[in-house]
Amino acid sequence: MSKKFTDQEKVYIRQRLIEEGKKLFETFGLMKTSIGELTKSVGIAQGSFYNFFMSKEELYYEIIEQEEEKVQNELTEVLINKTLTKDRFAQFLHLGIKSLDKNPILSQLYDERVMQQLSRKVPVEKLALNADKDLSFFAPFITDWQEIGVMKKIDPEVIVSMIRSLILLSLQRKYIGEANFEETMTQFIQMMADGLVIEEASTYD
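^ TetR family transcriptional regulator, sequence as received from the core. Prediction below:
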């Protein structure tokens, strides 16, 4: 029987699992990290893990969401209080993909086995919430741009779906091929920028 924890202990242990899980997943990846290693790193019994997460995949996914939030904060710096141009929007999309590449957790999503494992183990409603979070992040920018006439008036949800699709495409590096990957992504990004941004900015920011 797993130990009963106080509410304060639960908050502390859950946070420790996230912190130590991030270290283990960065080093060994999702597939090679066991629940036993996760619980040992925070000093709880293996069975106690399920008081906090349904599976190691759910813990991993929570870490992914936190890393995505950090990336979104970085991306905000490219856009906030700046006039939208095609070049700036393309820069924003490029930065999003490069952030995926350089992040030791997010870059593991290039491994299709990881994606398959997450789709099997993480509840569907939790996966759906991720799309809602992306919409909440991007929609205010898109709405503002549309109101001032620098972005085509397409449903913001569709534009967010286009951006998510671009990120998903970037995960197909193996199938696109290393030789053509960078140029393929550059062309897609430029087509999106040209198709969505309808007015170049003035000379001021």
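Residues 201-205 have pLDDT under 50 and may be disordered.
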